[in-house]
Amino acid sequence: MKTLTFTMKSSRAVTAAVGRNMSGIPALFPALFAAADKICLVTDGGAPKSLKARALALFPPGRTGHYFYELPPSEKAKTLEQAGKLCAFLFTKGFSRNSLLIAAGGGAATDLTGFAASIYMRGIRWISVPTTFLAQIDAGLGGKTAVNLSGAKNIAGTFHQPALVVCDTAFLDSLPHAELRAGAGELAKYAMIGPGRLRRTIERDLAKTLAGDRAALTACVTACAAFKLRTTARDERDETGLREALNFGHTAGHAFEAMAAGRLAHGAAVARGLRFALLVSARTGRLAAGAFDKLNALITALRLPPPPAIRWNFGKFMALVSKDKKARGAENRFILITAPGRLAAAENIKPAVLKQAFHGALK
Ligand SMILES: NC(=O)c1ccc[n+]([C@@H]2O[C@H](COP(=O)([O-])OP(=O)(O)OC[C@H]3O[C@@H](n4cnc5c(N)ncnc54)[C@H](O)[C@@H]3O)[C@@H](O)[C@H]2O)c1
């Protein structure tokens, strides 16, 4: 097990325990658990039963005051209504400001539970236990919580750091291959935006990770979790532009995901969003052809399935990207790349360039 601790700008330290088959977590972080009068384990109702069984090990042995709450599966959990229902459950069970939530599930479950933890009694502590590859390298870390609104992703949300993140790659044993591959979309992103060392780790381990190699998965989770926490520590509230790099590929990715209405996994949508961002970067002269080929090969290596057969309407795509919260009032705003590890925001890109990239990303 590796323990990663980073101190945020707010001076709050955030710790992630990363490894495989970790045991005795409550004993390793006694203060966190001892301070909790009640603990609720929140899980994704669509996840296999083995997930809940494994997550139960996070309850301190021999203590009472444990509760369970099951969310609707996956993205269906990420609504204001579901956040309200969870808060109402906590209230009826007598949860106080000293209580603790443990979110065990994919990014949808950690986003929703973190959001509920941030608003319940103006904020209670929570532990993030990401159980998908994508959530272990990205969504479960960093303290951004959110729900979706009016068909758009993550429109209402908060910053609320988990008191602890537990990334146990043994959870990934039950993950369907499609979810592993979807998570690898975010992995490709890290190879594009991260420093050389991270890029080399991912390039070395990408194929093995996709094949489910346990050592490669744990190595990638450890390296990416450290990078995400380090970036978050330097720009916790997304104010200086540093953290914005983590959104590379996400503006188009979120639009693809919203247009597909549940038929395109977040990570797969992000992978297509990355290709879109590479194409726009190249066609606007920011990214040289050689670098484009090198980075594009990372997406090709993911062997993405064809996009779902829906009507991919460019007009709707443009409406979604203009409403993206990252647009900040511009007609459109994208994070583009000029070289591996070097990103820059660009606004008001010509629709003709975007249209070509839109079709190129959905090939
Ligand atoms: N907060 C952030 O910084 C951040 C960053 C990236 C993505 N996100 C959000 O994360 C979400 C995507 O996360 P995701 O890809 O984990 O999707 P998800 O939460 O929808 O989970 C994907 C599927 O995997 C299942 N599952 C979860 N754990 C499992 C396991 N161990 N074994 C088998 N099945 C399992 C779930 O039931 C679900 O069907 C999106 O809502 C996205 O917006 C948030």
Short description:
The chain is α/β, with parallel strands linked by helices and about 375 residues long. The protein has 14 helices and eleven strands.
Write the layout of secondary structure elements.
Layout: E1 2-7, E2 13-19, H1 25-28, H2 30-34, E3 39-44, H3 49-55, E4 66-71, H4 80-92, E5 100-105, H5 107-119, E6 125-130, H6 133-139, E7 144-149, E8 152-159, E9 164-168, H7 177-193, H8 196-210, H9 214-234, H10 250-260, H11 266-283, H12 289-300, H13 314-323, E10 333-339, E11 342-347, H14 351-361
Parallel strand pairs: 2-9, 3-4, 3-5, 5-6, 6-9
Antiparallel strand pairs: 1-2, 7-8, 10-11
Helix pairs in contact: 4-5, 5-6, 6-7, 6-9, 7-8, 7-11, 8-9, 10-11, 10-13, 11-12, 11-14
Bound molecules: nicotinamide-adenine-dinucleotide (NAD).
